[in-house]
């Protein structure tokens, strides 16, 4: 007993250490840049709306093609930006709004919210006969939790809502028997909110809702009480949908009236009139766009097995592989059981195999994965909500967590790759440029700045902390332009005679710096931001073992010498 207590204390201490790492690394902050959506589906939009900063509005948030609800961005990034804006206006903080707070404040809210996962695992473990502290260690030690769940992705919110839904539908009495879920209204609210956040949430919600429906049907004595549960769910779902539709319609209609935050008293009736004329249901627009194969191809097409064979392994490593192996074993066992039942004339009693804990958890894991695999555009982050059923399954029914050393090494490498290295120079580069743009010298003498980014992920303009009225700063995103196009643009900036006091900076990875040196221009200052790993322009392996390894893993900020 004392040995078990000692192991329990050790597990609790290790979880607390990993929880502190999650929060501390967020504040540090993490330099890795996972995907443009972590900025352009929430913080970038809210920085423009609430802080009146120069930003880039993605097409999903334009009034001509509204495909994303504004409710969750307002509740997350919007709230944090409103807080730091209020602190600055009340003179409680003279420079609250800067690149650090613009980056970290929304992330910190998501990081705090990520502990909903830990709470859900602790609550769910007894219901699924899983070891709560083993499951918590697998969760807290996963680089998916440390990196993806501390970022401002809609997929992160999807994972948190999926966790809450699993908690609501999975409840057991103290004797281990199933308890009747009494939270039908909350289930309806969370399902609808998840659908408006990302319509793919229905793929994750399918198995929990079927599980809940089965428990309700089996536990109720009369059809009237069953209908009562379903009616509560539907009514609350409809009410939640109306709230989202009204909020989105108001927001996107107000964009047509130029500015949501400067509505005059007399124009409120115009807004209400337009609300009646144009009802906006963002999930339907999202589905209409994404069900078109041509549109998905613009974002990249992948084989249908990418989630199953690549993305699952990339995110969860050996746990995904072990789940596949267990799934095949259980399927084989189920088929043999079904054949035996039929041969002995016992009808479909073999279906009871699926009501056991482990197979049901596997269905919670593989059914959403299968539905998401129907779409040709498959990114790893789409699967991050599945970490919850996976860690519960991996520690359920006294299953030993195998390959412990492999799991640790895999997650350390994943955290370093995605938390530090991947596009890791872009955010420190923006921090550096923000300080340059707001230096006393720059503020005292108005200068024109041109910031040209090439072969990097799209730079979030909000981190430069430039007001919309400051038109003397221009950001040009060249994306993955060819050498000829890049040189033409840089040479045009160098020979611009209409601007006397112009400063041009070119930001480019070290792996493709040769492209810019081939242009007919010269540079007078250079800054190397380290580390930066571009998978689109990967480093040359031989050069990594030479004196040029820092250049291969760096991002250059080059200042154009216009005098030359």
From TrEMBL:
UniProt keywords, alphabetically: Endoplasmic reticulum, Glycosyltransferase, GPI-anchor biosynthesis, Membrane, Signal, Transferase, Transmembrane, Transmembrane helix
InterPro entries linked: GPI_mannosylTrfase
Membrane topology: Multi-pass membrane protein
Signal peptide: 1-26
Tree of life domain: Eukaryota
Gene Ontology cellular-component terms listed: endoplasmic reticulum membrane
E.C. number: 2.4.1.-
GO BP annotations, alphabetical order: GPI anchor biosynthetic process
Subcellular location as annotated: Endoplasmic reticulum membrane
Transmembrane segments: 155-171, 178-195, 201-218, 230-252, 308-331, 351-374, 380-396, 408-433
A molecular-function term among this protein's GO annotations: alpha-1,2-mannosyltransferase activity
Pathway entry: Glycolipid biosynthesis; glycosylphosphatidylinositol-anchor biosynthesis
Similarity section: Belongs to the glycosyltransferase 22 family. PIGZ subfamily.
Name recorded for this polypeptide: Mannosyltransferase
Organism: Ramphastos sulfuratus
